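Data availability excerpt. The first of two example chains:
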Amino acid sequence: MICKDLNFHRRLSVAPMLDFTDRHERFFLRLLSKNVLLYTEMIVANALLHAGPRFLQHDPVENPVALQLGGSDPKMLAECAKIVEGAGFDEVNLNCGCPSERVQSGSFGAMLMKQKDLVAECVQSMKKEVQIPVTVKTRIGVDDFTGWEFFEDFIRTVHSAGCDTFIIHARTARLRGYSPKENREKPAIHYETVYKLKEVFPQLNISVNGDIRTIDQAKEHLKHVDGVMMGRAVYANPWMLATADSEIYGGKDFAPQTRKALLEAFLPYVQKAQAEGCPLSVLTKHLYGIFTGFPGGRKFRQILSEGAPKALDGAALIRTAMDAVEEIGFP
C-alpha cells in the first residue's frame, strides 16, 4: 500500500547505498523502526527496463520505501517511474549526486548538476506518469560550480518542473581526482548551505545528508530542515534505529528490547531466503554491526563471515554466533 504521509516518514531516512541497502537489509532495518523511510540501492534506468523483476523485488513489510534511479533520458526515466509505482514503491528518486566514474560514464549522477534544464525535463516527464512523489538527491555543487547562486539556480529550475522534495548531501562533488570514498570525506561539509536553502524555499521539503552519525545529531539538524538522511553510520550500527520511532517521530519504539531478540525476529526471513536460493553470506553481511563494541562482537562477526559460505542452516549459524556475545539490554 502506497504511503499517504511520506513527509512524516522523511524526518529520518536511510540513504541508497550500493551493495548495502538491498531488500534483505531493508527488511532487517524495518524490524527496528516502522517509520524510517528506506531507500533501495541506485538502479540504472536502462538496467531496470531490461531486467526489471530482479531490481523490483521487495517485501511489503519494507514500506515506506523509495526506489532511486540513475539516468538522464527523460523518456526512459518516465517509463521507469511508471514501473516503480506499479511495483508498490512509495517514491521515485533521481540521483543527481553520485560522483563515481561508473555513473559519470553513463552521463548521470552528479554530472547532472551541470545540466539543470535536462534534470527539470527528466522530473517533468516522470511526474506526468506517476502519482507517487518524484524527488531529487543532489549535492551543493560540483567541480568548480560551488557558489550559492549556482546551487540556488539548480534547485529553483528543478522545482519549477514540479519537484518539491530534495535530499542534499552538504558537500560538493569532485568528478576528477577523488574516489567515491574521498568524495564522501574530503570536500568540506556545509550544513549551513542546506539550512539556507530551507529558508529561501520554505515550501520545499528539504533533507540534509552527510556525516550524520547519531540520532542526537539528527535531532539537531531537524531544528533547521525537514528531514535527515543517514547512510553508512546506520549500516555500521543498525541498532541506532531502535529508538528512532520515539526520538524522531514521537511515538512508541517498535524494536525488540535486545539485539539478540532482534536477530531471533530476523531468523524466519533468513530461513525463507536461504530456502529460495539466496546465499547465506548475502544475508549475514548485514548483521556484522549489530554487536559492535560488545564483548564477543568480533567473534560474532568472525563466526558469521567464516561460517556463512558453507552453512546449510543459517538460523543455527546465527544463533551460534550470538552465543559468543555478552549482551546488555535496551538500548
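And the second chain:
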Amino acid sequence: MPRRRSTVAIKYIIDREDAQGEQGFIAEIETLSSCKHANIVSLLGFCHEHPHMILIYEFVSNGSLDDYLGTKGKMTNLTWVQ
C-alpha cells in the first residue's frame, strides 16, 4: 500500500531560562489534544527532547486566523454568524 504524503506545519519553541516556553509548549499540547473541531487545526505530533520542543500540525493553506481578523492597523469586526 503506498504511503500517503501530507504537508505539515512545524512550530519550534525556543527553550527559555524562565520555563515559560516549556509551560506554553505543554499547555498547547494539552489544549489541542482535547479539542476536536473542524475549524481547529489538528496537532499531529510533537518532540520534547530537551532542549528541543517541536509541534507538528496539519497544514492549512488558507492562512491563519489573524489574517482574517486583521492586524492593529487594520481591524475587522465580525458578527457571531461570521
